[in-house]
Amino acid sequence: MIKVRIAGKIFKFMIVRRRSSLKGTKKDYAEYKDSALGLAKSRLEYFNTFYGFKIGRVSVKNQKSRWGSCSRKGNLNFNYKIAKLPASTADYIILHELCHLGKFNHSRAFWNLVRKTMPDYLEIRRSLRKS
């Protein structure tokens, strides 16, 4: 029983440690913020031609544990590190958050929205989770 608890604690620590590795330095953030914002806005504009969602504010942050987020008000936030990712991976993150404007969950209907313009999203998602 004790071994199971210890293993669980170690596993949890590894996840938290991995997630916290997303946050970068202030210098790195300053260097990539504008390019990440430009990338996010241009790709949102492109993908939204297929969906027609109402997009609120788009911003770039130095988030610790998230690549992106979507608020109920339609505001989209992205980690500045999307500018440093391969184009297909950045597109997946941007499209993922855009599709939350249509379905604010991870239901089958949500994933069908993602699949509409990115049929290979599962491969990209898997590679992102491994990194």
Helix amount: 55-70%
Determine the strand fraction and express it as a percent band: 5-15%
CATH class bucket: Alpha Beta
Total strands: the figure is 3
Structural class: mainly alpha
Strand order of the largest sheet: 1-3-2
- If helices are DSSP runs of H or I spanning 4 or more residues, what is the number of helices? 5
What would a concise description of this structure say?
With 131 residues, the protein is mostly helical. The chain has helices at residues 2-20, 26-51, 87-99, 108-117, 121-130, and strands at 58-61, 68-70, 76-79. It has a single domain (2-130), classed as 2-Layer Sandwich (Zincin-like), CATH 3.30.2010.
Would you give an account of this structure?
With 131 residues, the protein is mainly alpha-helical. It has 5 helices and 3 strands. A 3-stranded mixed sheet has the order 1-3-2, covered by helices on one side. Strand 2 and strand 3 form a beta hairpin. The longest helix is centred in the N-terminal third of the chain and has 26 residues. The chain is globular.
Short descriptors:
131 residues, Zincin-like, 3-stranded mixed sheet, 3 strands, 8% strand
SSE layout:
Elements: H1 2-20, H2 26-51, E1 58-61, E2 68-70, E3 76-79, H3 87-99, H4 108-117, H5 121-130
Parallel strand pairs: 1-3
Antiparallel strand pairs: 2-3
